[in-house]
Amino acid sequence: MEDEYLGITQKNYALFCDFLKNNSGVDLKSNRAYLVNSRLSPLIDAFGCKNLNEFISKILISNDAQMKKSVIEAMVTHESKWFRDGYPFEFLLQNIIPSVKDKSKDVKIWCAGCSRGQEPYSIAMSILSNCISLRGLPVSRIRIFATDLSMAVLNFAREGVYSATDLSRGLDDRYIKSFFIPVDHSCTQYRISDEVKSMVSFRHHNLVNTENRPFLGKCDAIFCRNVMIYFDSETKIKVLNHLKGSLKTGGYLILGSSEFIPEEVSDMDMRRFSNGVVYQKVT
Q: Model-level pTM greater than 0.90?
């Protein structure tokens, strides 16, 4: 690692990796110094530092909560799309919701690591578009909790305004026509409908802080997709056990298509469906 090229010493890089892992779960490894350089460089002037190495030194000793928050948000990847992989939304409608016996109780769905809102809004739109699949369950009984550690993306999601380019990533015309309203005559920005927005409650939550969950009660389903690919094995097991503990017995955990539950996390059975798998809590 060359100081002249990366603008950061090996010692500070290692300490910063520990800081980021402890505060977000993200494990940078030893070959991601270029990522630290590219994502933190725009913040150097804003926090009164001359270079990246000085900025990282300041991060490590500072009690400035706003600075640390800005750094974590800059380092965490916020990538999402509408109806990603397809099958989780089919499974929700065909298996999870129809299995609810007591139609008088709330059905809780947690979307953990919701980023800019595409996934929880996709869940809401799939439910609203397929009310026949609810089998007598009132839509008002379905509660979707969407969480992220970044306040910036949560505020974006709450606003619910997306560009035409954003909508082109996985959203077909029938959903756009049914659930989005153009903000301007040029149709470059679209606002999601209040009907969809009212189904989702956005809350701040860091998955690494496993002492509590951001809502009361346990869930019928948890979507936590393409979040733990950035965690090391120890953190993954810790978070997965936290998610398992947040599920009702018989509830389902839906992970990303390349993610899986290791054997260290017990009592979660794999269920194959369509083009993917889901996991069910058995006890």
A: no
Contacting residues for 183 by C-beta, under 8 A, at least 6 apart: 161, 189, 190, 191
Task: Dihedral sign for Cα 22, 27, 33, 36, please.
Answer: negative
Greater confidence (209 vs 77) lies with 209
Indicate the pairing of strand 219-224 with strand 107-112. Answer: parallel
Burial of 166 (0-12, 13-18, 19+ CB in 10 A): middle
pLDDT in tens, 47-71: 999 999 999 999 999 888 889 988 9
In this structure, are residues 52 and 41 in contact, taking their beta carbons and an 8 Å threshold?
yes
Distance separating alpha carbons of residues 222 and 205, to the nearest angstrom: 14
Question: Is the Cβ–Cβ distance between 236 and 209 less than 8 Å?
Answer: no
Q: What is the mean pLDDT of the chain?
A: 91
Quote the tokens at residue 282: 């058995």
Calculate the alpha carbon distances from 271 to 129, 250, 254, 255, 277 in Å: 25, 12, 10, 12, 6
Q: Which alpha helices (DSSP H) does 62-192 contain, by range?
A: 65-75, 87-91, 118-129, 151-159, 164-167, 173-179
Nearest to 29 by CA among 44, 40, 18: 18
Give Cα separations from 198 to 72, 121, 195 (angstroms): 29, 10, 6
